[in-house]
Amino acid sequence: MLDALRATRAPVASRSNALHAGAWWLWALGLAVAASRTTNPLLLGLLVGVAGYVVAARRTDAPWARSYGAFVKLGLLVIGVRVVFSVALGSPIAGTHVLFTLPEVPMPGWADGVRIGGRVFAEQIVFALYDGAKLAALLICVGAANALANPARLLKSLPGALYEAGVAVVVAMTFAPNMVADVLRLRTARRLRGRPTGGVRAVAQIGLPVLEGALERSVAVAASMDARGYGRTAQVPPAVRHTTTALTLGGLLGVCAGSYGLLAAEGARYGVPLLVAGLVAAAGGLWLGGRRSVRSRYRPDRWGVRSWLVAGSGAAVAALMIRAATVPGGEALHPGVVPLTAPELPLWPALSVLIGLLPAFVAPVPAGAAPAGAVPAGAKESTR
Q1: Which of 292, 311, 340 is the last residue of a domain?
Q2: Quick one: residue 229, left, alpha or beta (phi over 0 = left, psi -120 to 50 = alpha)?
Q3: Does residue 61 belong to any structural domain of this protein?
Q4: Residue at 367 is within a domain
Q5: Is the domain of 242 the same as that of 280?
Q6: How confident is the model at residue 374 (pLDDT cuts 50, 70, 90)?
């Protein structure tokens, strides 16, 4: 019995049992899709809490793992900007509870419908808060993927057809982690010199070196990959090349159309079939395109049972949330603002969101967060 319990316990992370980086991204994208289907602040807060708990339980001490806090701050900034724009530029929500009145700027006749200033209603503020919280939750879910997935291992797992775009992917995937690491380094240096690390002046003095240093490091990595022949291709017959192009472009178009259908309020019926067809076509195109690659892969990451569980938990949260919007009682996902009503926490959508906590129990535990006395998988065999 004890042996069975130990077998189900999450092992200490090592090189051999590390979770596939793509599983973290699929899990986070599933949470993001769920966040896009609701404006209920209670559900959005629950999604952010689930993402934060998993990040706290399974992130490492790597530089990119510190980017989650930056995404949380960015989400709060998005909410603030959304509220400010709603107050300054007005809102299509017709309210009845006037909070205050701003001086209104007269607009010319060709700008009918545009208003700057005027009366500010409580309904429009609440609507702006709901809308901003939805976008903030999307950003925080993406930040969770950035904090948990190793960008280098994710790049190594790219299909062979995408090796030509690998240099651009390196710059995009390593810019944010490098920027966070540079911010921490410069703030520590300023603190040791007795200089302030907060305020507008300090941010202005740190901002430019941080952006410049992060971009230079990302470009240096990309240049080293290019110098080593990353993305080198082989000759393939024209028919295979044309078929690859048609399948890849058609699949990507199907994925875009299906994703738009899933994000739209009434597009779930055609969104899922288009998304599945697009994924199948794109996978076929990537498989054919991989024949052009002459690059070998050293110690490829394996997609094991735990990777399936992590990715499947995110997909289950997204599917259940989409389903909850189409059944009776789905109006709780979008609480009304006219008239103002307190949002309610629907039971089944909330329980479906809690499925996203599964990675905190099945993903391998980082070495720094492992309990005392824990032994990494394979360590006993190596000491025999």
Answers
A1: 292
A2: left
A3: yes
A4: no
A5: yes
A6: very low
What digits encode the pLDDT tens for the residues 45-62? 999 999 999 999 888 877
Q: 14 burial class (0-12, 13-18, 19+ CB within 10 angstroms)? A: middle
Q: Which of 71, 40, 210, 39 is nearest to 139 (CA)?
A: 71
Are the CB atoms for 115 and 90 separated by under 8 Å?
yes
Whole-model pTM above 0.85? Answer: no
pLDDT in tens, 178-206: 677 777 777 787 778 777 776 667 666 77
In a shared domain, residues 249 and 141: no
pLDDT of residue 323: 86
Q: N- to C-terminal Cα distance for the chain?
A: 25
Token pair recorded at residue 44: 């959005």
User: 326 Cβ partners below 8 Å, 6+ apart?
Assistant: 268
Question: How many Å apart are CA 249 and CA 237, to the nearest integer?
Answer: 19
> Does one domain contain both 30 and 134?
yes
Same domain, 24 and 146: yes
d(CA 151, CA 60): 13
- Tell me, yes or no, whether 243 and 323 share the same domain: no
Query: Do residues 249 and 322 share a domain?
Result: no
d(CA 234, CA 232): 7
In a domain, 46, yes or no: yes
Q: Is the peptide bond before 63 cis (omega within 30 degrees of 0)?
A: no
Examine the domain organization and report whether 59 and 124 are in the same domain. yes
pLDDT tens-place string over residues 68-122: 888 899 999 999 999 888 888 877 777 777 787 778 777 776 666 667 777 888 8
Integer Rg of the chain from CA: 24
How is residue 142 written in tokens? 């993406």
Q: Which two tokens stand for residue 198?
A: 């907060």
Virtual torsion, Cα 248, 287, 34, 337, nearest 10 deg: 0
Q: Are residues 286 and 308 in the same domain?
A: no
Tokens in use for 304?
């094991």
Query: Number of structural domains, the chain?
Result: 2
Q: What is the pLDDT of residues 263-295, one digit of tens each?
A: 665 555 677 777 788 888 877 777 766 666 555
Beta-strand ranges (E) seen in 106-145 are: 116-121
HSE (side-chain half, CA atoms, 13 Å) at 56: 8
Please give the average per-residue pLDDT across 238-265, as a whole number: 73
How crowded is the C-beta side of 156, counted as CA atoms within 13 Å?
Answer: 14
Range of the domain at 240: 235-292
Which of 341, 310, 246, 336 shows the shortest CA–CA distance to 284?
246
